Amino acid sequence: MQSRTPASRTGRPRSAAADAAILAATREGLVELGWSGLTLSDVAARAGVAKTTLYRRWSGKHELVVDAVAELFDELALPDRGSLAADIEGVVLQFAAILDRPEAKCGLMGVVAESTRDDALRERVRTSIVERQKRLVLAGRARAQERGELPPEADPEESARTVDLIFDMAAGAVVHRTLVSGKPADEEWARGFTHILLLGLTTPLPNLTPPGEPVS
């Protein structure tokens, strides 16, 4: 198993241009070679850098692929299409389009599989991809609250729980649809999914207290 010790950040300052070239080369390699065929030597050659340059930035292939895929998801933007439903559909379609790209599909499936036996890698996926993209939920919910489409939530803990639930439902559904079922997340599907999601968002959560326990 690869070492998960963070790569050293001492020495010369990092070059943004070199980082961009390395991440682009990683995605290119995923398309041409697949997960199992991708090596750091190949990435270094494609990026025109020494292999040691990669190891100064990333401790191994898994971490490098996480960052290369995370950069793709950073392309996601919240559209302003006039309503919460239309905004959600827009993000869902963007997300599905990214997952349909071979570098995203191959890279994400690879690191998720590896993370099942590597807690540090799972945490890197969570912080680099999942937590960063929750910005879309926060922005979309705030916009919907300003429009009066969703009620405000004064309790920070309840608000954070709602954000987690929305993200899990939306991201989980699109990933399952595109990567597990292998079916298109097209406009018709996005519209139907959004309709079901919003029914849940506009209805108060049920009492989740287990039977026999007192309600506080």
UniProtKB/TrEMBL annotation:
Per the database entry, where does the chain bind DNA? 39-58
This protein's source sits in the domain of life called: Bacteria
InterPro entries per UniProt: Homeodomain-like_sf (IPR009057), HTH-type_TetR-like_transc_reg (IPR050109), HTH_TetR (IPR001647), Tet_transcr_reg_TetR-rel_C_sf (IPR036271), TetR_C (IPR011075)
Q: Name one GO molecular function term.
A: DNA-binding transcription factor activity
**What does the UniProt keyword field contain?**
DNA-binding, Transcription, Transcription regulation
Q: Where is the HTH tetR-type domain?
A: 16-76
A Pfam family (short name) is TetR_C_11
Concerning PANTHER family, the annotation shows: HTH-TYPE TRANSCRIPTIONAL REGULATOR RUTR, TRANSCRIPTIONAL REGULATORY PROTEIN (PROBABLY TETR-FAMILY)-RELATED
Q: Can you say what this protein is called? A: TetR/AcrR family transcriptional regulator
> What high-level taxonomic lineage is stated for the organism?
Bacteria, Bacillati, Actinomycetota, Actinomycetes, Kitasatosporales
